[in-house]
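Worked problem 6 (solution included).
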Amino acid sequence: MTNSVEPVNVPKTQGVPYYKPSIGPRLQPATRELFQVYSGLADSEILNHLHSIRDRAWPIAHYPCVGEWCFLLPGISRFTTYQAILSRVKAGASVLDLGCCFAQDLRRLAADGAPTENMYASDLHEELWDLSFDLFRDRKSMEAHFIKADIFEPPEGLLDLEGKIDIVFMCGFLHLFSWENQIEAIRRVVEMSRPGTWVVGLQIGTVGSLEGKMPPPWNAMFLHNVESFEKIWQLVGEETSTKWTVNAALVDMEAWGMEKEDFEWMPASCRGFNFMVTRQNLGEESKPSPPPL
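Solution. The predicted structure is:
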């Protein structure tokens, strides 16, 4: 099988701490197998293929998830709740991947036998979604619905999902925003949820809650610890007359599959942050979610 993706010149990498030229050990066996079995790539093709796709993606989105190959990490498939997620989607549950990038978590579900017609993906950059078909070579089989959207100015496509989503993925998404904007983003998620909805994800957290100005493209960001994350969901729950059970944990980023050099540029207090938030029925006694990892 020949590689149909042609490499391009990659701009603006010099001095960018979260751009790693080489994949190195970041391609783990489970992800390599995904590209072999699901995408049909020969083992000898994989590295060149991934470099070609990343080179095309970097000019579109200068994000660490692209620059540091985070789209190759096992992601949600490493959570202990993954099999329960997979079972729900196989049974017809709807799933929305917010800030999807290449929608790699949806591809893992598809590779594990989940139908894709009830999947939704949303991102600011429609070019990344289109590029994801080249990355996974599934343009003819992936039936997920893509919605180009700004969560703060949702288009009709997102508004149409009100009360219809059973599972929401938010990986590397919520931490991009300030406290106030996170509240607004969570309100949007609540609008799309219904009792029993799971909100599952991972992001950068911190041993002490931290808000500060970051360089573009981030500007203001708020990084959570467990207590602040519980608080923000409680606040939004009270505002929206909904009830949510939060299960969250700080983890070493190596547990995600990242290399030490991938986060040396971050503040020393930063950690990985895994979470699963469950919408309860009003009046129902709170039940703890299973541990996310």
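Discussion: The chain is about 30% helix and 20% strand.
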